[in-house]
Amino acid sequence: MLRRIATLTALLGAVAPAAAQAAPFTDRVVPAGAPAARAAQAGPSTTVPLAGGGAIRVEFTPLVGAQPALAQSYVAFLDSLPHGDELARLRMRIADPREMARLCGGSEGDGILACYGAGRQEMIVPSTGLDARTQDGGYTVRYVLTHEYGHHIAANRRNDEFDGGALDYGPKRWASYEMVCNQALQRRLFPGDEADRYRSNPGEGWAEVYARLTFPEQPWTFTPLLVPDAGALEAARLDVLRPWTRNRTVTFTMSAGRDVQSFQVPLTLDGRVRATITGPHGSEVGIRVRSSDQVIRSETRARKGPRDVWRIAAGCREEPTEMLTFTAVRRGGADGPVTLRVSYPG
Length: 346
Known about the structure:
With 346 residues, the protein is of the alpha+beta class. The chain has 2 domains: 8-241, Collagenase (Catalytic Domain); 248-344, Jelly Rolls, CATH 2.60.120.380. The chain has helices at 8-12, 68-80, 100-103, 141-155, 165-169, 172-177, 180-185, 202-212, 230-241, and strands at residues 3-4, 27-30, 45-49, 55-60, 91-95, 114-117, 122-126, 248-254, 260-267, 271-278, 283-291, 294-297, 307-316, 322-333, 338-344. Strands 2-6-7-5-4-3 form a 6-stranded mixed sheet. The longest helix is centred in the middle third of the chain and has 15 residues, at 141-155. The radius of gyration is 24 Å and the shape is elongated. The two termini are 16 Å apart.
């Protein structure tokens, strides 16, 4: 049955700590408005043009100093990754690995490899070069850049029905394929948690899946609930190359002379659903809504008159394809065609 997201905040506040999961990769996503990853001592900078137009401004911390060749190699690598026009909105700061914890709002010993600041759309990455390995040897800097760029893609994708949007839940198609919303309601995933449940944060899971598009051999170190299969990888590719931007709208008509007629809409993505029924002047109409065998809304709750609206602000599927049945009901008044218009994410 389609579930509402309204109870999610209360549910997440009452969960038990997640089991520890050993893994070397650790980064941070710094929300817009947070002080970390925003204020830093000014250093030199350079602007690197992109092959498809636009450019990326790259700053260096004073400890690193100006290294234009390094900046060019980093930008060229990012330009080679699957991306859209969001690349030109990226900013980059190159820092010494010893500065990373401070710049990313962590503490010494956290093992933070890099971070992404949502407010400035800025990744802060190490200065050691693309083919250098992280201190524990588990990752190349190429991989670190790719993971951080996954966060940048999410910051530029629509999934804003959910608190934290695509940055916390992942972009629309991938998050829906993995049923992130439903798993969050079940207290199995924890959107936006960059601390105790970092490994079960779907925003981090998305960034790792994005990295798998280029580095499929890298061992998976996040929650096993989000280990990508072929369907997840294809959903991720579509989110990158053909971003979801708006709901679909379908229109049904109940002909004059009929008092009841049902129409079905297959829901394959999570998000906002709205149904509007309109009858002729002087009529009284309503909408019944069912998902599988569950009644979501009875027309007896509808307003009286020739128009009625039902909506759910952030619906979570419990099945990969959830069939919604909308029943147009004429309760009296003038005869004539009745129009039912349904807006849904896909």
